[in-house]
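Appendix B. Raw example, untouched.
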Amino acid sequence: MALGRPSLHGGDVLKRIGLALLVPLALLGLWQLVVELGIYSRGQLPAPVDVWRAGVQLWDADLFWLNIRVSFERVVRGFLYGGVIAIGLGLIVGLWGVARMVLDPALQAVRTIPSLAWVPLFILWMGIGEQPKIMLIALGAFFPIYTNLVSGIEHVDRKLIEAANAYGYSRASLAWHVILPATLPSLMTGLRLGLAQAWLFLVAAELIGASRGLGFLLVDGQNSGRADVIVLSIILLAVAGKLCDGGLSLVQNRLLRWSDAA
């Protein structure tokens, strides 16, 4: 049995949190210094206290959590749709050589299309409701998951597949009981990259007739000349993306620890 990963004690956790906060705190100090020196005007780069006040204004107007919640729901839905499709196609392409030759070149070509290029087409196809936003986010999440899963399948020990075939495993059983467990590290890496990509595509998605959300807040701040709202939106996007990645990282650590122990 393989040894599990060492557990972190309370002191280790606090040390890791402290180290992780070093760069954000240093950036906060540098930000305040740049403002104090007048390198940029407050209209160009607001002070941290100005950004705080912008957040308080949104809070008082009951818009702070509303914009976060709307964006979070869009990212989760798009990530789930993109992830399910990516895993399905990844297994098909990874297990069937013919499917790889037929599907993979086209998918790799689609992968190179910039996210903003899809916006006008999705508007023509689906209007300006929630559906095109979710589909654009799903598209962003799809490719990292698909690419990492296919790459992981390529590196699966062929002896495992031969043994499964010798025991009469069907394609579905082979995928579920052999391929997915063996490719779990690659798949989890793809899921984390796909989730990060979903947050990146969110801003482009919320250009499609959105009236709520962090991407909308960012664009609205630009249109109204509110640099404090722009910086606040960027900070909230960074924090939300990091928290989501942290949650998925915990899931990854538990799954891989179980896999190592098995």
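End of appendix B.
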